[in-house]
Amino acid sequence: MNRRDALQLLATGAALQLAPAKMMAAFREARAVLAAQSTLKTLDLHQDATVKAMAEMILPRTETPGAADVGAADFIDLMLTEWYQDSERSRFLAGLTDVDARSQDLFHNDFVECTANQQAVILNQLGEQMIEDELTRAEAAKSVGPPPEASSSFYSMLRWLTLTAYYTSEDGATLELHYQIIPDRHAGCVEITLPKEALPKEGPQPQ
Hey, which of 17-21, 53-57, 59-63 has the most confident mean pLDDT? Predict the structure, then answer.
C-alpha cells in the first residue's frame, strides 16, 4: 500500500489534528511510557517478529522512515498491554496464530521465514477477508434489526495500530503529515539578550 492510502485509512492528517484531546493525550503518554520500556509485555519474541514484519509491509521504508524505524511493534505491544481489553488482546494474538497457520498451509514455513513475495500473498488474503467482512457489515447495517457488531478482523486491528503508531510518532507526524507540534507551555516573559552589535550606539543619533 502507498502512503496516500495509509493517510486515507487514518482519515488524513487533518483528522489527526482534530482528534479528541483525551485520545491525543493518551498517545503522548503512550510514547513517553514506550521510551522507558525495554521489554515486551504481551507479545513473545516470535509474535513480536511477526508483527514487525507485517507492519513494515504495511508501511515500508521509502524516502521516509518505515514502521520499523518508528518502533511500531513496540507501540503495538504497549497498546495491547495497557489499552486493549482481554477479549481484544486474545483476538489479536489468535490472529497472529492464524497468520502462521496460513503460512504453514501455503508455504510450509512460519510467516517470518517466508519470502517477501510469500508474505505479500498472506497479507493480500487477509486484506481481501477484511474487505469482505466490512462489506457484510455494511449490508447488515442497511437491514432492520440490531446494529452489526464492530469489526473483529485481526488485520484491521493490525493496520489501525500500525498507522496509529506511525502517524503519532515524531517522524510520522512531522515528515509525513507536516504536523506543527504546539509547545506544551507558553513562556510569556522571557528576557531577550541582543548581540552587542545590535544595541543602539551611544551619543547623538542622526535624525
Answer: 53-57
